[in-house]
Amino acid sequence: MDLFLFTILFLVLLLSLSLFLISLHPTKTKPKTTIIAPKISHGFKSYPFLGTSLDFLANRHRLLEWATETLTSLPTNTATMYFPGKFNAVVTANPLNVEHILKTNFPNYPKGDIKTTLRDFLGDGIFNIDGDLWKMQRKIASHKFNNRSLRNFVVDSVRFEIQTRLIPLLGHSAKTGKVLDLQDALELFGFDNICKMVFNVDPCCLGLDGSNDLVFMRAFVDASILSIGRLTDGLPFIWNIKRFLNIGSEKRLAESIRIVHNFVENIIQQRLEGKSENYEDILSLFIHAGEENSLEFLRDMVISFILAGRDSTSSALSWFFWLLSSHPIVIRNIRSEIKTVRALNGKTWGDTFDLDELKELNYLHAALSDSLRLYPPVPVDVKECMNDDLLPDRTVIKKGWFIFYHPFAMGRVASIWGEDYEAFRPERWLENGIWRPESPFRYPVFQAGPRICLGKEIAYIQMKFIAASVIQQFDIYPLRKENMPEYIPSLTLRMKNGLPVRVKERNL
Length: 508
Description:
One of its GO terms (molecular function) is oxidoreductase activity, acting on paired donors, with incorporation or reduction of molecular oxygen. The chain is an alpha+beta fold. It is built from 19 helices and 15 strands. The strands form six sheets. The protein has a four-stranded mixed beta sheet with strand order 3-4-9-6, with helices on both faces. A three-stranded antiparallel beta sheet has the order 5-15-12. It has a two-stranded antiparallel ribbon with strand order 1-2. Helix 7 runs antiparallel to helix 8 (182-199) and helix 7 packs parallel to helix 19 (456-473).
């Protein structure tokens, strides 16, 4: 019955759309056809019966820019979208609204029904759940992430990956003159590293020997892209129909998820059966906590942490290195800071870094922060409204509506960042040479409130270690010259066609 109703709704939508398009293109026998005029509805164009759907579909290839242009043109930086079937949403880049939904009225804005879109891939992992199960996972994970031993473990893992894989790969590219896809290399790096941190498995994806097995990682990437594609594929019933019939993107998604689940479940099963050592990784922490040891629970938890650790760091660093290529002064400042910190710690220019040194790299921290402001790994996030509410900017939101808060647009609001908001300027983050944090509600790159990212400090450690190691030894020259590379609609902000670069080794 559900499929029948979905089909009827789909046909009604197609009929309405067809009539609308016919009215826009009159025939010779009917030269005075009346055109249905759009009306402006809180910033987005809205048509009778079709709401914002036509404008949404017309801008599918540039959703971030489209929403940013609309939000930044409005005094409240907030707009409302209407779709057929009473699917409505508020989109905001207003810090007061962000604080309201992520902190002040947090219980009223859970993940909601949006969870169903990602459930096939993420299941009941920490990033796709609410309520008591989320609280339990959050409590266990927060204990681990606040442990200095984990930070030291991360530094050791990153050091190994940099020295044995990333630096040799960049050196090989420099010596041979071959173009390297830096985004791809960083994603392979991130995948190896997060797998070690989460369940102490090294997939060996990054390397020069050609022995790496990328089946699991490719399936993971495909599952990420196809899952988020459900949100941009039109109305929800479209992907539901494709899923029911097991066709197209839904068939590919099911196969990708099967590969990911099998890989993770095999490792967890060995750990549960005691066929491997006890480790100090995140999986072991959850197993030893004892609250929930089912295979499905542990699998969903592992997948969520891999997703967060792999995609977010590699995305952030890809955009960072792309930005650096057009800002030589920033590169010089980073290198000057590295040289100073090295000297104060009795290190030479080519030595590896330790945790305390990384903490002293304030200018690099500021440069990464400003890059994240402009190109946040998660450019948009969404919650569902449980009960009618009035946002601080006086926008009305109804029960069952979605609310999207928009870090990408927020990084381009003059009232938050000043008239030079478009500029990549690390100095905006420094006070007397020391990095100064911004309110997470003005800068929700790592979320804010009770769900603020547990791995924020770990992410900065990884990014600073990688960036400092690469910048001190190599010059990176991206081949892309456009103002902003195209991106792929995914769970994170990934560059379309990668980040091809040429690498030149520096004389240390």
